[in-house]
Design brief:
Chain lengths: ~280, ~550
């Protein structure tokens, strides 16, 4: 049977659709769709989630190309997650107000938890055995695996970005600490990308021709080595530019915010004489 | 103090100036933990190695002056160019930058010393003995001979059986420990020992760049140190990290080295950007244009520095996919550097510029460094890199960056801060001679090497055939090299003359902006008894011109 062109390969997993519906409902209960900017962020997050999980990009990642799968990861982790956090209004509707506020306080106090969540989830899904196992039954409409995979990425992305973009600005980490937060995450991301780029082809089995379920299929004639290198490099280079952009944004926020102007160092042993 | 202890002399009143002879002898310098003395020793160390590294390359240039020359054997040539590169990077530029930072940093933030004075002394002496160890290799059987980058497999025992490369490893490890410990000291001093009223947003840009640079050092040097230890294990205990023949990887050395090496390029230029960000405003009599942008682009450069090292390895066969990604990222790194160039141009624009020698070097830097930057960007384009890699085009590029960038910045800083450090003025007329001689010699030496590289002349080869154009261009390059040597000789004469019989310097000869200028020239042992409150990025100017203080115009200069 002849396959449909890739552009028409949209597949909607039942659990993913239900999850999205739940997410929209939750957002309505939290925000009441009242603020345009938040609505815009939320809509973008949902659209990107659909792109990562239901679109031809997902299809390509599922059956043919590692690099497409990696783009999905970045969309979920570094775009959808932060957009979801940005969509939360600073004044939430009851009964969510207190819960969100408490969550913000915890992550403000223990921002390393947020950092670890983001980094560990990303690494977890790339452990070779887990990576290969995550594809089992992923293309079935009634499988819960896609939701576990995408949901955990989305959750990690949201928690990771919370100390920087969370709804309560007073509880954001200091912008300069935020730069260290993002830079160290960038280093972790680079290491993972580097490992994937230079890993032997036998490390990840899913894209071996015989195992992908579409044996021998390679619609764009990309060799396996090129594909794996591109996947690693996407994680390594463009991903780091996302973090870098975040660093520049934080620096801009630090300069623009006058409340940081009066920060002092600890006192010096020198006698200070005010003229 | 208990009687059994050695009585180490300590300065009683004012510190000695730049001369090493003091009433309390050389031991007083050796035992010093004062940041100013340690800073001066760093600078002297840098001058010493500048002369040694310069003499080495003069012999190299003599060898290359004519085709098919046999003045040097290939073995001696390899040792000389390796020692030249290693010396200039690790024992000239680095100590000079750290010397300025060690001397000026506490003065600029209103502190009386570094956070850890003894660690400060340790850092200097580790660097000093690192250099001595490296040069001891000449006596121990042969200097290292695999280039400053020391590529595998040339660094393996089978290819270099003299102990030179072992000394390279030990020397760089020791000086690397000094560099890392100094950086820790800088970070803590800046974050914890600023005068109470100086917020981060009011810190001098030189201090900002040292802060960023210190983080860069802390992140980059572990990679080099790890690689050096692995190499020592290979050579001494027959490990196989970098030996392809026995399951190791020669490319791994390049990854580890350039993971350090590319950030190292920025480690040698970011503090220089800081120097220029002090020099341009003072001699243009204007505040820096875009204070926040200078810092922001510095942070961007530091972060990007770790994402582009693979562009040094385009020709190693990593494949088109890898090359393409790093070509794109390497092109991007020119952006924040370009931002800074426009910062300085805009600072000069409309200013009442004083063309002192320090400012002349700053202006010359804008031209030379941009040439080096443009040739650098051309390497980000993979086909151009493949064509030109390992040719004299690379030699020209890196010297435009290291000399036209880093060394010009150090000279600019030297002429700017010399009166403060020594209490004496330098001869302005002779200094101008030095400037023009050096700039002419520099361009004569390296501009032609772009052409030589494009014509295919390979670097790191001890001689060359008499192909059309090669002989004359090499001769010009050698003449230029000797012109630079004469200029450096003149500089040393100017400095010695200045120290011995220069006019006494006022505390603030350039009508400058930052706190170091409110101390006497040279400063007393205790830097400050009192410091005026800091309310803007130009606190000393605010103090001198209270009616025109920056902090009274918050919208104009920001606050």
């Amino acid at each position: 049977m002849e396959m449909k062109p890739i552009i028409y390969q949209w597949h909607f997993n039942l659990f993913v659709v239900l999850f999205l519906a739940g997410l929209i409902l939750l957002y309505y209960r939290i925000s009441g769709f009242k603020r345009t900017n938040n609505n815009l962020c939320f809509t973008l997050a949902i659209l990107l989630f659909l792109l990562a999980e239901c679109s031809p990009l997902h299809f390509l990642g599922m059956h043919y190309y590692f690099f497409a799968h990696m783009i999905s990861h970045i969309v979920l982790l570094l775009m959808c997650g932060p957009l979801l956090v940005l969509s939360i209004p600073d004044k939430c509707l009851d009964p969510f107000e207190n819960g969100i506020s408490a969550f913000s306080k915890i992550l403000s106090k223990y921002s390393w938890i947020a950092w670890l969540t983001g980094v560990l989830v990303m690494w977890f899904w790339h452990i070779p055995a887990i990576f290969d196992a995550s594809f089992v039954a992923m293309n079935k409409v009634t499988s819960i695996v896609p939701l576990i995979h995408a949901g955990s990425m989305l959750f990690a992305g949201a928690v990771f970005s919370w100390p920087i973009l969370g709804p309560d600005k007073k509880l954001h980490v200091h912008p300069l600490a935020g730069i260290v937060y993002l830079f160290t995450a960038c280093v972790s991301c680079s290491l993972l990308g580097l490992l994937i780029t230079f890993a032997p082809l036998t490390t990840y089995h899913h894209y071996d021709n015989g195992l992908s379920g579409m044996a021998g299929s390679n619609p764009w004639n990309i060799s396996q080595i090129t594909d794996q290198q591109a996947a690693g490099l996407i994680m390594w280079v463009p991903c780091c530019f996302v973090y870098l952009t975040g660093c520049i944004y934080l620096l801009q926020r630090w300069f623009a915010n006058t409340s940081y102007s009066n920060e002092k160092s600890i006192d010096l042993k020198t006698t200070v004489h005010h003229e | 103090m208990e009687e059994n202890y050695l009585q180490v002399p300590e300065p009683e009143q004012a510190l000695p100036d730049l001369s090493i002879s003091s009433s309390q002898g050389v031991l007083q310098w050796i035992s010093s933990v004062d940041h100013k003395q340690i800073g001066i020793m760093y600078l002297w160390l840098s001058v010493l190695f500048l002369v040694i590294g310069g003499l080495e390359v003069l012999v190299v240039r003599l060898q290359l002056a004519v085709p098919n020359n046999h003045l040097l054997s290939p073995e001696a040539y390899n040792q000389l160019f390796t020692m030249h590169g290693t010396t200039m990077i690790f024992f000239v530029l680095t100590p000079a930058i750290f010397g300025f930072a060690t001397y000026l940093l506490p003065l600029m933030i209103g502190a009386n010393d570094m956070a850890f004075p003894r660690l400060n002394a340790f850092s200097f002496w580790a660097t000093f003995f690192g250099g001595i160890l490296l040069y001891f290799s000449f006596l121990a059987g042969g200097a290292p001979d695999a280039g400053w980058f020391n590529y595998a497999p040339l660094n393996q025992y089978n290819y270099s059986s003299s102990p030179g490369i072992d000394y390279y490893c030990f020397g760089l490890l020791l000086s690397g420990i000094g560099t890392v410990s100094a950086s820790v000291n800088f970070v803590v001093t800046i974050l914890k020992f600023r005068i109470g009223s100086m917020s981060l947003k009011q810190m001098p840009l030189f201090v900002w760049m040292i802060l960023i640079n210190s983080f860069l050092v802390l992140a980059a040097f572990p990679s080099l140190n790890a690689a050096l230890i692995m190499l020592l294990l290979d050579r001494q205990l027959h490990a196989h990290f970098f030996s392809s023949a026995s399951g190791g990887s020669a490319i791994l050395w390049q990854h580890l080295f350039w993971l350090f090496g590319h950030p190292e390029v920025y480690i040698l230029i970011l503090p220089i950007f800081g120097i220029f960000s002090e020099v341009f405003p003072v001699y243009s009599r204007k505040p820096i244009f875009g204070y926040a942008f200078v810092i922001g682009s510095g942070v961007a450069i530091a972060l990007l520095a770790f994402g582009v090292w693979v562009h040094h390895m385009f020709a190693t066969g990593l494949g088109n996919t890898v090359n393409n990604f790093f070509a794109a990222s390497s092109l991007l790194i020119g952006v924040p550097t370009g931002v800074k160039i426009f910062n300085w141009l805009a600072t000069m624009y409309g200013g009442a510029i004083r063309f002192k020698v320090s400012m002349l070097f700053a202006i010359a830097f804008l031209v030379e460094f941009t040439i080096g930057g443009l040739s650098g960007v051309s390497f980000a384009i993979v086909p151009i890199d493949w064509q030109l890699t390992d040719t004299y085009y690379v030699v020209a590029h890196l010297h435009y960056v290291f000399i036209g960038g880093s060394l010009f910045g150090l000279f600019s800083g030297l002429f700017y801060w010399f009166p403060k450090i020594s209490g004496k003025m330098l001869d302005e007329q002779l200094s101008r001679w030095f400037f023009w001689l050096f700039v002419a010699g520099f361009n004569l030496t390296f501009l032609v090497q772009h052409a030589l590289g494009a014509m295919g002349m390979p670097r790191r080869v001890y001689t060359y055939p008499n192909l059309p154009g090669w002989a004359i261009l090499n001769l010009i390059s050698t003449v230029g090299g000797f012109l630079m040597a004469i200029a450096v000789g003149l500089l040393i004469y100017i400095i010695v003359k200045g120290i011995r019989s220069g006019d006494k310097a006022a505390a603030d000869p350039w009508d400058a902006n930052t706190l170091e200028w409110m101390t006497s020239s040279p400063p007393e042992l205790k830097n400050f008894d009192r410091v005026m409150p800091v309310k803007s990025t130009r606190p000393y100017r605010d103090y001198k011109r209270p009616e025109d203080a920056d902090w009274k115009k918050p919208n104009k200069y920001g606050k």
